Amino acid sequence: MNKCFPSNEIILVVALLLFCKPVTAQKDNQQKLSSADKAKIESLLGQMTLEEKLGQMSLFAAEWDVTGPILKNNYKKMITEGKVGAMLNAYTVDYVHELQRLAVEESRLKIPLLIGYDVIHGHRTIFPIPLGQSCSWDLKLIEDADRVAAIEATAEGINWTFAPMVDIARDPRWGRVMEGSGEDTWLGCKIAEARVKGFQGTDLKANNTLLACAKHFAAYGAPQAGRDYNTVDMSQLSLYEWYLPPFKACLVAGVGSFMTSFNEIAGVPSTCNKWLLTDLLKKEWGFKGFTVTDWTSINELVNHGIAEDNKDAARLSLNAGVDMDMVGSTFLDFGAELLNEKKVNLTRIDEAVRSVLEAKALLGLFDDPYRYCNKTRQENEIMTTDQLALAKKLVSESCVLLKNPNQILPIPEKIKTIAIIGPLGDSKKDMLGSWSAAGQWEKCVTLLEGIKNRTGNKMEIVYEKGCNTNDDDKSGFDAAMKVAMNADYIILALGENNWMSGEAASRSKIDLPGVQNELAEAIVKTGKPVAVLLFNGRPLAITKLTSLPIAILETWFGGTQAGNGIADVLFGDVNPAGKLTMTFPRTEDQIPVFYNGKNTGRPYNPADPNAKYVSRYLDCSNDPLFPFGYGLSYTTFAYSNLVTTVEGSKINISVQIANTGNRDGEEVVQLYIRDKVGTITRPLKELKGFQKVLIKKGETKTIAFNLTTDDLAFYHPDLKKYWEPGEFVVFTGTNSVETISKSITVK
Ligand code: BGC
Q1: Is 294 an active-site residue?
Q2: Which residues pair with 653 in a beta bridge?
Q3: What DSSP letter does each residue of 504-517 carry, written as one string?
Q4: Which one from 146, 167, 171, 294 is the annotated catalytic residue?
Q5: 381 Cβ inside 6 Å of ligand 1
Q6: 3-state SS, residue 31
Q7: Which of helix, strand or coil describes residue 63?
Q8: At 695, phi and psi to the nearest 5?
Q9: How far is the CA of 15 from the centre of ligand 1 (A)?
Q10: What is the pLDDT of residues 436-484, one digit of tens each?
Q11: What pLDDT does 71 receive?
Q12: Could you tell me the pLDDT band of residue 69, with boundaries at 50, 70 and 90?
C-alpha cells in the first residue's frame, strides 16, 4: 500500500468520527434513599454477623407454587435465626404478617423480609398473558394493568415481583414467549418501561407499589432450537442490539432488581458471568439495585460444567456479582468457608448485603415492616369492579383478527342459534394462561359464559366440546356435528391448553395439537359461517386451519375476564385493533422467522420466485403466515401521502390514513426505517414508532412522527451506538409488510 495515502480503514474511521453522532445519555429514574435510611443500613452492617449477612443474601420458598426443588423447608426457624433475607411464593396478609413477625420480632437484628412472587400478568385479577397484552400496542393500558397487579399483590403482603420478563424471543417453540412482549426490541423497550412504572409507581414507599425485577438477564429468550434452558450462543453485536436494550430500558425506568437467567452466554452461564453482572450491569450501566439468581441457578452451575460443586458455584456467582441466591442456599452454606479460604472477600459480601438492605429501605420496610399487611386493603382492593373492567378492556384490545372472509365477524345480531364447539369453549382453567400468580380459575369467565352474558336471552347458545386439546380421541365429533347442523353460526374454540406454554413447555410442533384441525375441517363442511377463536401462548403454525373459509380471531389466554372481553369483539362492541408482536410461521421449519432480518447477498425476489441461487426454500415460501405488526379490523384503512422532511437532526414524517370501511376503528399506525448502507449490514426494516389512533368511518387523519438522528443509531463492532449519515427508507403501514415508503438522505 502507498504509505502516503491513508488506508480505507483510516478513511472510514475519520469519516465516522466526523459524521457519526453518539446517542445522548439517558436519564436514570432510580429512586433515592434518605440519609436516615443510609445511616440505618450502615449501622446494621456494622452489627451483623457473617451468618446474618449471608442470610440477607438468601431467598427461600414457601411451599406454594414451586417451579423447582425446595432445598430448605425449615424456613420459619431460619427466619428467627437471621438466616433469611427474602421469601417467595408466600402471600395473603395473615401469612406474610406471620413471616414478617418472625423476622422483626424474633430475629436478633429485626430486619424485615422481602416477599417476592411471580406477579406476571396480574395477581388476583388476571390480565391476558403478556404476549397478548403486547398485541394491544397500548402502553398506558399495559402500565395500568401492572398498576392493578401491584395494588392487588401489595394488598396481600407481597412487596417484590419477579417481573417484567423482557426477553426478546424469535422462536415460538420456546414456551416462555407467552411471558414476554414478542420479537421486537424497540417495542420491547417501551413495554418494559411501562411495566416497571406500573409496578413501582413513583414512590416505592407507598403501600401499593412494589419492587420490580427485570428478568432473565440475559438472552434467555434465544435458547438453541427453542428448547427451554438450552444453550444460548450469539454474537456480542446481536446481544447488544437485540437482547440487552429492554433490560437497559428497565434500568433507566428505575427497576430495583435484576434476575440472572438459567442459560449461558458464550460459554459462561449468566449466574456466574462477571462481565454481564458486574462489568456491564453494575459498572457500565450503573445499576444500583441488587441481583438475584433464578431458581437454584447457582447449584445448576455444576450441571453446566463450570463449577466443581455447590461451594465452587457459590464462589463463582458471588465473585461475578450475584447478590442473592434464590432457593439454592449456597451462600448461606458455603459463604463462611469461602471467606476463610480467601476465595471471596468481605467487601463483596457487604456490597451484596447493602444492596438488599437498600431495597428494603426503599420499600419503607424499616419504617413499617407490616406496611403491606393491611387487611382492609386485602378486603377492598382486590378484583374490584374497576379492576375487572380494565381486565375486560385489555382482553378485547389484545385480540388480533387474523382472517375475516366475507365479514364473518362480527356476529350479525340477527343470528338465532350459535353453536360453540371446541375444547377451549368452556374451560375456566385454561383461561388463566401460564404464570397466573394467585389467579383463581373458578372466577374466570369462559367464552361460553361471556357470550351468554352478552346475548342474554336474545340468542340460543349451545356448547359441545368436540375433542380434547391434545389427544386423538374423536368420539365427540358426532355430537359436535349435530349441534353444528342445528345452528346458524358456529364458533370454534381451539388452541393449546394452559400447560402447553410457559416455563419448561417448549413444543417442537406448533400447529394445533390433537385432532383439532380435523374437527375444524369437519365443522366447515356444514357450510355454516364459522369463526375460530384461538387460545394459545405462542404463535402457532396454523397453515392448514388458515386455508379453510373461516374467520380467525387470536385471543391468547385472556385471564379472569377472557369470555367477556372476547364477546365484546365478537359482537362488534369493540372493533379489533390488536397487531401481532411476534411473527406466525407457516411451518416450524421456517423458524426463526422474524420481520427484522437482513437482506443477504442473494435476496429472494418475489417477482422471480423460481430463481435458483437465492436465499429461499425449495419447498416453502420465505414469507411467514402472518407477519409482525399484522392484524385486521372490521373496517379498512388506506395509507397515502407519506411526506418526509429532514431538518438538521430532525426527521419529520407524516402520513394520511383514511378509514375506508363502514365502522369507526382504531389503527396501530406503524413506522419503520431501513438504513440502506451501513458500515455493518442493517435489517430490512426496524420499527421506530407507532401510534394507535381512532379514525371514524369516512374520516382521514394525518399522523405525524418526529424522529431524530438518535433514532437511527445502532451498535457497531466496538459496541458503541451511533448513527451513520446516508440514505434511509421510511415506511409506514398497517403491518411490517404492507407499507408505503419514501427514501430520505440524512447528513
Ligand atoms: C423462573 C423465574 C421465576 C422463578 C420463581 C423460575 O423457575 O424461571 O422466572 O421468577 O422460578 O418462581
Answers
A1: yes
A2: 644, 705
A3: T---S--S--TTHH
A4: 294
A5: no
A6: coil
A7: coil
A8: -125, 120
A9: 47
A10: 999 999 999 999 999 999 999 999 999 999 999 999 999 999 999 999 9
A11: 65
A12: low
pLDDT at 97: 96
Tell how far the Cα of 295 is from the centroid of ligand 1, in angstroms.
6
pLDDT at 675: 98
CA distances from 184 to 417, 577, 582, 733 (A): 42, 18, 8, 16
For residue 641, pLDDT over 80 is answered with yes
- Is pLDDT at 14 greater than 60 in this prediction? no
Distance from residue 226's CA to the centre of ligand 1 (Å): 18
Query: Over pLDDT 90: what percentage of the chain?
Result: 93
Pair type for strands 551-554 and 637-647: unpaired
C-beta of 572 in contact with ligand 1 (< 6 A): no
**The three three-digit cell numbers of residue 289, written as one number:** 439495585
Ligand 1 atom at minimal distance to the Cα of residue 89 = 12
Amino acid 418: pLDDT: 98
Residue 525 burial by Cβ neighbours in a 10 Å radius (0-12, 13-18, 19+) = exposed
pLDDT reported for residue 22: 42
412-426: burial string, b at 16+ Cβ within 10 Å, e else: eeebeebbbbbbbbb
710-728 burial, b for 16+ CB within 10 Å, e for fewer?
ebbbbbbeeeebbbbbbeb
The C-alpha atoms of residue 639 and residue 668 are separated, in whole angstroms, by 12
**pLDDT at residue 542, rounded to an integer:** 98
Measured by CA distance, the residue closest to atom 6 of ligand 1 is 295
pLDDT band of 738, cuts 50, 70, 90:
very high
Could you give the count of Cα atoms lying within 13 Å of 315 in the half-sphere of its Cβ?
16
- Tell me what pLDDT residue 674 has: 98
Instruction: Report the DSSP pairing between strands 58-61 and 86-88.
Output: parallel
Q: Which residue has the cell 431460619?
A: 78
Q: Tell me: cis bond preceding 585? Omega within 30 of 0 counts.
A: no
Which residue is closest in CA terms to ligand 1's atom 7? 67
Q: Confirm or reject: Cβ of 724 under 6 Å from ligand 1.
A: no
Q: Which residues contact 593 (CB under 8 A, 6 or more apart)?
A: 170, 583, 585, 624
- Residue type for 326, please? M
Helices 346-362 and 330-340, interaxial angle, to 10°? 140
Q: Is the CB of 258 within 6 Å of ligand 1?
A: no
- What type of residue sits at position 469? T
Q: Quote the ligand 1 centre to 330 CA distance (angstroms).
A: 18
Q: Please give the number of the atom of ligand 1 that sits closest to the Cα of 179.
A: 9
pTM for the predicted model, two decimal places: 0.95
- pLDDT tens for 100-127 read 999 999 999 999 999 999 999 999 999 9
Q: How far apart are CA 569 and CA 81, in angstroms?
A: 55
Ligand 1 atom closest to residue 213's alpha carbon, by position in its atom list: 10
Q: Strands 530-535, 551-554: parallel, antiparallel or unpaired by DSSP?
A: parallel
Q: CA 729, CA 673: separation in Å to the nearest integer?
A: 5
